Amino acid sequence: MKEGKRLSEDAHCAATDVPQAGLPRVEFDEFAGTGYDEWKEAAIAALKGAPFEKSMFTQTYEGIKLEPVYTIDHTRDLPSPKSFPGQSDALRGARASGYLSRPWEIAQECDAISPALANDWLKRDLERGATTIALNLDPNLVKESADLHVPVFRRGVAVSSLSDLETVLEGVCVTKHEFHVHAGASSAASLALFCEVAKGRGSKPASLTGCIGADPIGSYLKNGSLPCDLDQFFDEMAHTIYFARENAPRLRTVLLDASVYHNGGANAVQEVAYVMADAIETMNAMRFRHLEMNDFARHVRFEFSIGSNFFMEIAKLRAARMVWARIVEAFGGDEEARKANIFGRTSFFTKTVYDPYVNMLRSTTEAFSAVVGGVDGLSVSCFDEAIRMGDEFSRRVARNSQIMLQEEYSLLQPVDPAGGSWYLETLTDTLARKIWETIQEVEREGGMLSSVRAGSVQSAVADVLAQRFKKLASRSDRAVGTNMYPNMMEQPLPPHAFDVDSFNAERAGSLETLYASRDAERVKEGLRALVENSLAGGALIELIAAVASEGATLEEIRTALNDDAKPEAEITPISVHRWTEQYEKMRQTTERYKERTDDNVRIFLANMGPIPQHKARADFITGFMEVAGFEVLKNNGFPTVEECAEASAESGADIAVICSTDATYPELVPPLARLIKEKCPKQRVFLAGAPPEELKETYLEAGVDDFVNIRSNCLAVLTDLQKRKGMF
After folding, report:
1. Number of domains in the chain
2. Which domain-ending residue is among 428, 454, 480?
3. N or C: which end of the chain has fewer CB within 10 A?
């Protein structure tokens, strides 16, 4: 039976069996059925000799071969599409009603350095549509050393003490909005401080919702080291879970963040598999500390960065829910514990420095993927995050993109909009299987920690990053405004003025005031109690809260917790990258050289013949060379090789690029190349296009130095030209 005929019958049944009042019955028998074989024959004919397998199939970074067409046959043997939203596999969402009963939380990350400025931003965001208190803490403070004397140089709110956090949250209702706070390798101190703020306002910790979470293994991979062993951080995590279970049951304290892999260049399979392997390792550490599976799972939130591959990102989130449900089930967790809580963030990896307003479009499509994939909360990054801290404009645009998806595009209404898609259901299943295979590979190596210490995880991620850079270098992957279609008229976005030195001096002064106003002996007693703590039911959190209320700083608390601790052995970290960073570095090299010397690599377009004859290749070369910020000297073409060679010599250009058609090249190239070399021996000659092998040697002998075409490694060619110019 042909596929088209089968679909017609299915549709006919649907129309017959489920009549809708007031609507005429629609018969589909009038449509002719077309099967895959007929479609394939038509596609082969349209390709005009190009190989079908090579032209119509796409290989992804995940090692998945995407087919050109997906039919119902691809999903017939898949068990999951037959499930419903809210069922145990969680494929179609953790809740039966989707976003109808509970919209996804709208977060706008607050990363202002000053607590006062952070407070201002936070209140503005919450007044204008945000629903989550999302804070990025200063990495120098969240970092496990918590050295307050290191100058602030990275974005994040500088919270040094309880009073700083009170400043950040002044005028903010902490019981009305969810929290989303990254706390590094330990959330013990952060949890204690947030609970103290709530108590100071007459509220109980039980009224707090969201996540104030830690990820010890993720922090280990980000930093490459830890000041004390992981057992210490797992002990502190156990305290937070015990405490939250009894005192703040709606607050999660474990935040397993896949962004460390994503921003390192990982593919979707690696992101999910490694964060799930992290979850398994962490879960086993908690079970060793006498915590039940259900207790642990209910306190876990996953965070995923959402990349630019629209359908792959949707499938990634759906597969993550399936895999987590299977893991929890295998460890004896109940149905509620199998429901993954997933927070999404638009990708930092995909954001560009050049043509930054294009990042608005990138973030919007990424946010759309996140919503269709079923996130519980989402943060859309500012379009200028690769350049500077966000401002009122960039934050407003980011925030409103989510509000529009909810209010204007009605994405709260469909439950699992991807459900039933032959392509997405198949892709989700394939992705889930590959994720499970990768998890098993990690387990065979001894688990996530063993794999991390051996460098296997880092190496696998680095391999994919290298593939991404290679495809971007050759422009197989395209970054609009960076390696394709650069805007030569753009003015760089200026960094926002912030006097870091003055702020650090002010912060030091505030600390001195704090030291002078507190009872030093009571602080010492409180810190001594931290050193002597036991694992008894979350007692550590109460002890931290008590000493913080006496005026102890986060540095002092961290130092006390690290007492006599042995540092975790150093590993190779997974560094943060952006996919366009190599191109940006190249263009910045040109810009610095121009500023220093008032000179540039100058490209003369040796256009031969009328405009229709040379335009296609002239446009290609212009775009190719402008990627590096080079100056391209344009013209409307020359009727003779003599005139073209004369103009090329007079231009003083570093390179002349011959542009015309393949049909004219055999006659034009040899004499033109020779004339250019005669008139200006130092000028290099390129040919736009890929000549046939039988002519290549002839062109080289005539004086052509190189060939530039769509298969050229753009990054390598332009970097070489910079080197020859003496730019570095």
Report:
1. 3
2. 454
3. N
d(CA 321, CA 87): 11
Helix and strand totals (H; E) in the chain: 28, 15
| Site of tokens 């008894």 | 536
Residue 129 DSSP class = T
Where would I find the beta strands (DSSP E) of 540-683? 602-607, 631-633, 655-659
Mark whether 197 and 89 lie in a shared domain: yes
Residues 28, 89 share a domain: no
Q: How far apart are CA 665 and CA 610, in angstroms?
A: 14
Q: How far apart are CA 110 and CA 155, in angstroms?
A: 9
Q: Considering only CA atoms, which of 465, 458, 464 is closest in space to residue 577?
A: 465
What domain range includes position 639? Answer: 581-725
Torsional sign, CA 544, 549, 554, 558? negative
Angle (CA) 180 560 243, round 5° = 45
pLDDT along the chain (728 residues), means of 10: 36 42 68 81 92 93 95 84 76 88 94 88 96 82 40 63 95 96 92 96 96 96 92 95 96 97 98 98 96 96 97 97 95 94 97 96 97 97 91 95 95 92 95 97 97 98 98 97 95 81 82 92 92 76 95 92 88 96 97 97 98 98 98 97 97 97 97 97 97 96 97 98 97
Q: How far apart are CA 367 and CA 401, in angstroms?
A: 8
Q: pTM above the 0.85 mark?
A: yes
| 3-state percent breakdown (helix, strand, coil) of the chain, nearest 5 | 50, 10, 40
β-strand 684-688 against 706-708: which pairing, if any?
A: parallel
Gap between the Cα atoms of 75 and 90, Å rounded: 18
CA dihedral (397, 403, 407, 413) positive or negative: positive
Query: Based on the domain organization, do 23 and 151 belong to the same domain?
Result: no
**Is 11 found in the same domain as 144?**
no
